[in-house]
From TrEMBL, chain A:
One of its GO terms (cellular component) is glycine cleavage complex. Residues 32-294 form the Glycine cleavage system P-protein N-terminal domain. SUPFAM superfamilies: PLP-dependent transferases (SSF53383). The gene is gcvPB. The modification N6-(pyridoxal phosphate)lysine is found at residue 270. Residues 357-456 form the Glycine dehydrogenase C-terminal domain. Keywords: Oxidoreductase, Pyridoxal phosphate. This is Probable glycine dehydrogenase (decarboxylating) subunit 2.
From TrEMBL, chain B:
InterPro entries: GcvPA, GDC-P_N, PyrdxlP-dep_Trfase, PyrdxlP-dep_Trfase_major, PyrdxlP-dep_Trfase_small. Keywords: Oxidoreductase. It comes from the Bacteria. Residues 4-434 form the Glycine cleavage system P-protein N-terminal domain. One of its GO terms (molecular function) is glycine dehydrogenase (decarboxylating) activity. NCBIfam families: PRK00451.1 (NF001696). This is Glycine dehydrogenase (Decarboxylating). Gene3D superfamilies: Aspartate Aminotransferase, domain 1, Type I PLP-dependent aspartate aminotransferase-like (Major domain). It comes from Prevotella multiformis DSM 16608. It is an enzyme of class 1 (oxidoreductase). The keyword Oxidoreductase applies.
Length: 496, 436
């Protein structure tokens, strides 16, 4: 990473008359677009030569920090290594150059990939079948909740309009429930950080569509009462939903299907190594138990005697639970292909080592740092854990300050101020990709920062010092929104 | 343990276990009830070496046919400059997270600001967000935004000329979200303004969704549509093919309140359906109703012009159960793809691509109809895609596929939806015509 801000916008490098493209001569004769259909003015897009464009985006990239640059202990995000072979396979023309509406007999290889990973994910999670259509984790949550709602509606059980969500849940859970038209009921956590079964019991009734859980939860703790919770939810007629954001530590250790979950979503960009790409594209497959298979969204890939086929929606005037469509085609295919490559690279045996090693790394960091950082719940964690800021709070150095100081030392910050259960939450997830050497280096740095907080607190409070930019003015951005280059120019002109 | 993705030696593991104070890796799961511990084997193949993986996918790839593509339906085979995949593979872009830590994410934040700026230019709208999953779900988000924008009205109208998969997604989202969704009839392949007026004036309409070019490739005339909507406080929502907007009258010019669509047409690989990205734009007035991520300008503690994720109070992770959308990411890397595409093609190249596609499609249409074996279904202006009727549709389709050509998308029993881009040569087009 370059520690000096590059800072240009492509529009500022543009000169009329320059071009960065070449196209073959138009040999089709001129067919004029009717004037009534034509835009009045051209879109003001940049005009640059090719090298200017290449340098511009290369320079942008150098102000970015990725997993390939250094350690990314970002809690709940599972920033593991993104294997390069995944990129090679997903750029093969035999996969990139397929139109989604090609006849099935011309895309048997692509359908085989989809079918095989449906089966692989079903086996890894203990579910009966999987849809790959959801484009992201949040989209998977929404799809899963639609499946739950469809199941109840199909049975005529229409008063189930509530979904239970723990107070420690990711913010997406209640938001997905709201979009699905469900009312959220919050269940409290115990002081030990687990779902409070006694608080749960009175919430259960014939108006409950289901309950959403993350296991291990957002504190990195395994919800050990899960068999009892599953029984309680099922006894009241509800279904149990598994948020797969934290599946990584369970590889080789436990499966959501065996715990009693009816519907799950996975984040291929977390557990299955596909790159985060600065915020997407992701992929959020959804798995279901046997009785929910009819409610999987369409299209869906199946295996027949004649080869692989696509079950599609029937075209009906009325809405039908069997014809839910949640996207254009069969999901983010090239992301799915990357995840399949990862699964094949690890294979049956090594994939089982992922969970224990991710868990080992997290517990090791926790044990090594709990003398300097406040550990509110001191127990075995899974893939991640949460500190409640520095132990010594007398200096006024906050979690935000520690996070920013880490940037100076070449680390990405942990997830901060989440979960909301602790004021100074700092959530650390190392993943299995990191070696003991890297982790020891991080631990040493965290001790150094704690020492700095005691001895030279201003140094930490004013961090970062060695990044391309200093702390940003969030308030200004929201109070006076400048969201396009046109607005930026207009704003500069009105200031003059 | 000995795998290239797993760095731990046995010695490392032992030292770490000792520090934690447990005996073995199994002990890390001591609290997991025995009844739910997984003790079996996953139904997966053994680990493959990199050479074996290459061979495996090579073989799988051979089961696909690469066809000369005349299919569209929302996904178009446009030319992609070689610069793009090269820049996209830079791991600072590829392997970074959502740019929450602005200090080490200015690369991402700058290009998203550029993306928003270019998409706003292209659509003629005031602002754009940082991108959506893809076009169909972006349209559903627009439907929900209209629903929430209205205090009383709960109905959203959509034109029957929307693509089938968009209608499917709208129906699903509407059902669960409590939106009453109603079709507006088409006449001669275009949305009936008459019918639209009648339904809007009946009241209770929060928004109206149309598509440009529509499901048949036709360029619709939306004159008066925005007024019809605005008279009754309904939002006018236009879904467009991004690349065509280099020439076409923009959603902004049609008076749209929200503009949505897919950016696949900006040179993105067809990739058997994804990843693509959607775009979503609005007027300044609706800025705070726009779902998804937005990047804005600000300054840092050193007085530099910098960019940051902003207006986050709108977003689901803050609003939780009060959220009106659960979108909590964008499709950054695909937005970067489109941004570099628009930088490379630039102001002139974007127009040239659109015009050449337009000319090539009209050339093919002339050639096909001249044989008198194919007839244009609707006599309306079209862009680079058109619907023909042919008696021997299936025989022609199969013959084309046998000759390595995907001649279009089958519609009904005897129709074919054909799309042409600047990537098709005259020889390819003439070959296709020769098969008829």
């Amino acid at each position: 990473m370059n520690n000096k801000l590059y800072g240009n916008l492509i529009f500022e490098l543009s000169h009329p008359g320059r071009r960065a493209y070449s196209l073959p001569e138009n040999r089709f004769g001129h067919h004029p677009l009717p004037d009534a259909c034509r835009r009045a003015k051209d879109a003001e897009l940049p005009e640059c030569d090719e090298m200017t464009v290449v340098r511009h985006y290369t320079n942008h990239s150098e102000n970015n920090f990725g997993v390939d640059n250094g350690f990314y202990p970002l809690g709940s995000c599972t920033m593991k290594y993104n294997p390069v072979i995944n990129e090679e396979i997903s750029s093969l023309k035999a996969f990139t150059d397929l139109h989604p509406q090609q006849p099935v007999e011309t895309v048997q290889g692509a359908l085989e990939v989809e079918y095989n990973i449906q089966r692989a994910l079903a086996s890894i999670t203990g579910m009966a079948d999987v849809t790959l259509n959801p484009y992201a984790g949040a989209h998977g949550e929404l799809t899963g909740l639609m499946i739950i709602t469809s199941y109840h509606q199909q049975r005529g059980d229409t008063k189930r309009t509530k979904v239970i969500v723990p107070d420690s849940a990711h913010g997406t859970n209640p938001a997905s429930a709201a979009v699905c038209g469900l009312e959220v009921v919050e269940v409290k956590s115990t002081p030990e950080g687990l779902v409070d079964v006694n608080d749960l019991r009175p919430l259960l009734g014939d108006d409950i569509a289901g309950m959403m859980m993350t296991n291990p939860n957002t504190l990195g703790l395994f919800e050990k009462d899960i068999p009892e919770i599953a029984k309680l939810v099922h006894d009241c007629g509800g279904l149990l939903y598994y948020d797969g954001a934290n599946l990584n530590p369970l590889l080789g250790a436990a499966r959501p299907g065996d715990m009693g979950f009816d519907v799950i979503h996975l984040n291929l960009h977390k557990t299955f190594s596909t790159p985060h790409g600065g915020g997407g594209p992701g992929s959020g497959p959804v798995g279901v138990c046997e009785k929910l298979i009819p409610f999987l969204p369409k299209p869906h890939v199946i295996k027949t005697k004649e080869g692989f086929a696509i079950e599609d929606c029937r075209l009906t005037e009325e809405y039908s639970t069997a014809d839910n469509r949640i996207g254009g085609y069969l999901g983010n295919f090239l992301i799915i292909l990357r995840a399949y490559t990862y699964i094949l690279s690890l294979g049956r045996n090594h994939i089982k080592e992922v969970g224990p090693l991710a868990t080992l790394n997290a517990n090791y960091i926790k044990e090594c740092l709990k003398d300097d950082y406040e550990l509110p719940i001191d127990t075995l964690c899974k893939h991640e854990f949460v500190f409640d800021g520095l132990k010594d709070k007398s200096t006024g150095v906050t979690t935000m300050d520690v996070a920013k100081r880490l940037l100076d030392y070449g680390y990405h910050a942990p997830t901060i101020y989440f979960p909301l259960l602790f004021h100074e939450a700092m959530m650390i997830e190392p993943t299995e990709s990191e070696s003991k050497d890297t982790i020891d280096g991080f631990i040493k740095t965290m001790h150094v920062i704690a020492k700095e907080a005691r001895e030279t607190p201003e140094l930490v409070k004013e961090a970062p010092h060695s990044t391309p930019i200093g702390r940003v003015d969030d308030v200004l951005a929201a109070k006076h929104p400048i969201l396009t280059y046109r607005q930026l120019i207009h704003d500069m002109e009105s200031e003059e | 343990m000995n795998h290239k993705f797993l760095p731990h030696t046995n010695e490392d593991i032992q030292q770490m276990l000792d520090r934690i104070g447990i005996k073995d890796l199994n002990g890390l799961y001591a609290e997991v009830p025995e009844s739910i511990r997984f003790k079996g084997d996953y139904d997966l193949p053994e680990a493959m070496s990199e050479l074996e993986i290459r061979a495996f996918f090579e073989k799988l790839g051979q089961k696909n046919s690469l066809l000369t593509c005349f299919a569209g339906g929302g996904v178009y085979d446009h030319y992609a400059p070689s610069v793009i995949p090269n820049l996209l593979s830079r791991s600072e872009f590829l392997t970074s997270y959502t740019p929450y830590q602005a200090e080490i994410s200015q690369g991402t934040l700058h290009y998203i600001f550029e993306f928003q700026s270019m998409i706003a230019e292209l659509t003629g709208m005031d602002i754009a967000n940082a991108s959506m999953y893809e076009g169909t779900t972006a349209t559903a988000e627009a439907m929900m935004a209209a629903f929430h924008n209205s205090k009383k009205a709960d109905t959203v109208l959509y034109s029957e000329t929307l693509s089938e998969n968009i209608i499917g997604v709208l129906k699903t989202y509407a059902h669960f979200h409590g939106v009453t969704l109603r079709p507006v009839k088409a006449e001669e392949g275009v949305t009936s303004h008459e019918e639209l007026k009648k339904q809007v004036e009946a009241g209770g309409v929060a928004g109206v969704i149309v598509q440009q070019p529509n499901r048949y490739g036709i360029i619709e005339d939306f004159t008066g549509f925005a007024d019809t909507c605005h008279d009754k406080k309904a939002l006018f929502i236009v879904n467009s093919v991004a690349s065509d907007l280099a020439l076409l009258k923009t959603p902004g010019e049609w008076g749209a309140d929200l503009a949505v669509g897919d950016i696949q047409s900006l040179g993105l690989p067809m990739a058997f359906g994804g990843p693509y990205a959607g775009y979503m734009c609005s007027t300044e007035k609706l800025m705070r109703k726009l779902p998804g991520r937005i990047v804005g300008k600000t300054c840092d503690s050193r007085g530099q012009r910098v960019f940051v994720l902003t207006l986050q109070a709108r977003e689901q992770h803050i609003r939780r159960q009060k959220a009106t959308s659960n979108i909590c990411s964008n499709q950054s890397l695909m937005a970067l793809y489109a941004t570099i595409y628009m930088s490379i093609m630039g102001k002139e190249g974007m127009k040239e691509v659109a015009q050449t596609s337009y000319d090539a499609a009209h050339y093919l249409c002339e050639q096909l109809t001249a044989t008198e074996k194919a007839k244009l279904v609707y006599d309306k202006p079209f862009f680079n895609e058109f619907l023909v009727q042919m008696k021997e549709r299936d025989a022609f389709f199969d013959k084309a596929v046998r000759n390595g050509i995907l001649p279009g998308i089958k519609v009904d029993d005897d129709r074919l939806l054909i799309a042409v881009t600047e990537k098709r040569t005259k020889e390819e087009i003439d070959t296709l015509v020769g098969l008829l």
